[in-house]
Amino acid sequence: MIRILCPTDFSDNAFEAIKYALLAYKNEECTFYLLNTYSPAVYQSEYLIGSPGQIGLGDVLKTSSTTQLENLKNRLIDEFKNPNHSFIVHSAFNTLLGEISETVTNEKIDLVVMGTKGATGAQEILFGTNTVHVIKRAKCPVIAVPPNFEFEAPKEILFPTDYEIEYAKKLIEPVLVIAKNHQSRINVMHVHTGLDLDTEQQKHKVLLEKLLGTTALFHEVPNNEIISAVNAFQASSKINLLVMVQNKHTFLERLFIEPVIKKIGFHVTVPFMVLPQV
């Protein structure tokens, strides 16, 4: 049983992300936790230490959140009719990040799937603020689904790596599950920096080859910026899912803090899975 957390603000992008999760894991037994958080735009201090009934606004927000979650649950059951899937709704007066963190721990969540679109919807923003923070703090894998993404089976997976970390089966397992379900090919891409792999990198590559087995195809890309390399690979080959490991010493960490990203135009047009280093 896979436990998948799907935060929603009831937007189209949030629904697209949930739809992606249901279709990507259609052959797996899953419990989907539909999460919505709410908080008054302006609230008085006594609201936090007393009863929401003192103001009444909390009750209205709670009722609205719960009602919309139940409607969403019923819609998913009616539209997808998958006996492998069950749904739990969860409404909370909390910040989204705080509630995601608590739910991942308390419910032993295996995967978070969410939309990428920020509140502004600005094209030059790669991910919304919430998505960035969830990815950076998550203790489990996260799949971020871009707006207006029409579902396509993840047959071709792109997995950029620098071979700097030792890959454990637990780390790679989420990718293997998807690959098994969709007979996917995993394209492991190493961007050549002009230097040969050192002994540790060679060891990590061999281990990764063993873990991925026949599902993987290994690519050596000429000396290039990782962003340009990913863009070029997407342009030359059809990719349905981008996978990276959240490693503090590699590209993914810089992805969220370097303003140069916007200038280069790194736009993820396919779902993006981030694996936490365990």
Low-confidence stretches: 119-125, 259-265
Total helical elements: 10
How does the helix and strand content classify structurally? alpha/beta
Order of helices and strands: EHEHHEHEHEEHEHEHEHHE
Examine the coordinates and then state which fold CATH places here, giving the name of the CATH topology of the largest domain.
Rossmann fold
- What is the fourth-level CATH superfamily of the largest domain? HUPs
- Rounded mean pLDDT score: 84
Tell me the overall shape: elongated
The oligomerization state is single chain
Percent range of helical residues: 25-40%
Q: What percent strand?
A: 15-25%
How many strand units?
10
* Shape-level CATH architecture of the largest domain: 3-Layer(aba) Sandwich
Spatial order of the strands forming the largest sheet: 3-2-1-4-5-10-9-6-7-8
Number of domains: 2
Quickly name the level 1 CATH class of the largest domain: Alpha Beta
Q: CA-to-CA gap between the ends? A: 21 Å
Largest sheet: 10 strands, mixed
Family: Belongs to the universal stress protein A family.
Protein name: Nucleotide-binding universal stress protein, UspA family
Domain UspA: 3-146
Pfam families: Usp
